[in-house]
TrEMBL record:
Annotated organism of origin: Streptomyces dysideae
GO molecular function terms noted in the UniProt entry: DNA binding
GO biological process, one term: phosphorelay signal transduction system
Keywords: DNA-binding, Phosphoprotein, Transcription, Transcription regulation
A Pfam family matched in the record: Response_reg
Protein's recorded name: LuxR family transcriptional regulator
PANTHER family, sorted: TRANSCRIPTIONAL REGULATORY PROTEIN NARL-RELATED (PTHR43214:SF24), TWO-COMPONENT RESPONSE REGULATOR (PTHR43214)
SMART domains recorded: HTH_LUXR (SM00421), REC (SM00448)
Domain Response regulatory as annotated: residue spans: 4-122
The organism's place on the tree of life at top rank: Bacteria
Lineage of producing organism: Bacteria, Bacillati, Actinomycetota, Actinomycetes, Kitasatosporales
Amino acid sequence: MAIRVLLVDDQPLLRTGFRMILEAEQDIAVVGEAGDGLQALDQVRALQPDVVLMDIRMPRMDGVEATRQITGPGRDGPAKVLVLTTFDLDEYVVEALKAGASGFLLKDAPANELVQAIRVVAAGEAMLAPSITRRLLDKYATHLPSGDEPVPDTLHTLTEREVEVLKLVARGLSNAEIAADLFVSETTVKTHVGHVLTKLGLRDRVQAAVYAYESGLVRPGAQ
C-alpha cells in the first residue's frame, strides 16, 4: 500500500513542488494539503495520513503545536510528523521533536532525501541526520545537562548493551548502522530499541534521543 502523505505549509508554491516530487514515486500518495496548523488538524482527522510533512512557522497555529496535537495523548490518528525547516539551527526544531515529531529535514534538501525521509518515518524510524542533530544540540548545549548530574534511576533499568544502543540512537544512527557498529543483526537492534523504549516509557526513537541528551548520558559534541 502507498504511504499516505499530507502536505502542510503556508506557501502554496512549496506545497506544489513537494507534491510533484512525491507523486512521481509509486509507493507514495499525497492525500491532501493544508496551509496552517489548524487546517492540518482537520485534514489529519478527515484523511488519516501516514506521514504529515509539517512546516514549523505558519499563521494561526504553528507546526510545533500542531505536531503536539497530532502525536500527543488523544491524538487524532496514527500519523507521524516529519518537520520541514528553512534553517538547520532552529530552536523550533528542538521543540517540535519534543512535541512528538519523528524527525526533521531542511526544505532545500535534495528530492531523493525528501522521499527517503518519508519512507524512513513511515516505517517507524526516526529521521535524524547526525550532522544536523549534532549542530542543533551543540547550539543548545547550555540548556542541557553538563554530565555531572546524577544519572536518572530509569537509566539503571537498561542493560549494558541497551545503553550502547541508546547512545547510538542519540547520534542519529539507523538500525542498520547500529547493527554494523555493534556487529549484530538488524533484528537484534530492533529488539534492543524496543526494550529501551519500553523500559524508559518512551514513545519512539526521537524521544529516546532527547532522553539520552537530557539525562546526560550523551553530551553535545561527543562522538
